C-alpha cells in the first residue's frame, strides 16, 4: 500500500485528509462530549486546514527545501497561538482566567500540530498525538466534594 501511495499523488492526498479528518473529529467529539468550548467542527477545521497547509507547502517548495516548509508550519502554529489567546481572553470573567479555557486553547494548538504532522506524511506521530490528547482530555483534575 505504501508504494501505491508514493506513486499515486491524489490517493496520497486523500489519505492524508481522511486521517486528518478522523483525528480532528475524535479530538473535537471528545471535547464536545465534555461540553467544552471548541467541539468537533472547530477541531475538524483546524486539523484539515493544517493538513492542507502542509500539503500545499510540500507542493510549492518540495520536501528538500525544508526552510520554506518549516516557515509555513511555524506560521500555522503562530496563527493558532493567536486564536488560542483570543479564546482565553474572550473567556476571562472577573479578571480570572478559567483553567478549562486554557486547556481548550492548548488542545486547539495541539490539533494544529496533528494536522501538520499528517500533512507532512508523519501519520504515526499525528495519530499518537491524537491518542495522547484523548487521554489528557479524560483526566479529571477537579476536586471532588465530600
Structure, explained:
With 146 residues, the chain is mainly alpha-helical. It has one domain (2-137). It is 78% helix and 0% strand. It is globular, with a radius of gyration of 17 Å.
Number of domains: 1
The major pleated sheet works out as: none
- Rg from Cα: 17 Å
Mean pLDDT: 83
- What is the multimeric organization of the chains shown? single chain
Helix content: over 70%
Q: Bin the strand percentage.
A: under 5%
Question: Judging from the principal axes of the Cα atoms, what is the shape?
Answer: globular
* Run of helices and strands: HHHHHH
Q: Features of this protein?
A:
146 residues; globular
Helix and strand arrangement:
Layout: H1 2-7, H2 9-33, H3 40-61, H4 66-90, H5 99-119, H6 123-137
Helix pairs in contact: 2-3, 2-5, 2-6, 3-4, 3-5, 4-5, 5-6
In short:
The chain contains 6 helices and no strands. The protein has 146 residues and is mostly helical.
Amino acid at each position: 500500500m505504501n508504494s501505491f501511495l508514493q506513486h499515486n499523488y491524489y490517493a496520497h492526498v486523500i489519505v492524508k485528509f481522511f486521517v486528518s479528518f478522523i483525528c480532528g473529529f475524535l479530538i473535537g467529539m471528545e471535547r464536545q462530549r465534555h461540553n467544552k468550548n471548541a467541539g468537533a467542527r472547530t477541531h475538524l477545521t483546524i486539523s484539515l486546514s493544517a493538513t492542507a497547509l502542509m500539503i500545499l507547502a510540500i507542493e510549492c517548495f518540495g520536501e528538500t527545501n525544508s526552510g520554506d516548509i518549516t516557515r509555513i508550519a511555524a506560521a500555522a502554529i503562530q496563527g493558532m497561538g493567536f486564536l488560542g489567546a483570543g479564546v482565553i481572553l474572550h473567556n476571562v470573567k472577573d479578571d480570572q482566567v478559567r483553567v478549562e479555557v486554557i486547556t481548550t486553547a492548548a488542545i486547539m494548538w495541539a490539533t494544529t500540530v496533528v494536522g501538520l504532522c499528517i500533512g507532512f506524511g508523519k501519520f504515526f506521530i499525528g495519530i499518537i498525538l491524537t491518542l495522547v490528547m484523548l487521554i489528557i482530555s479524560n483526566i479529571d483534575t477537579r476536586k471532588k466534594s465530600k
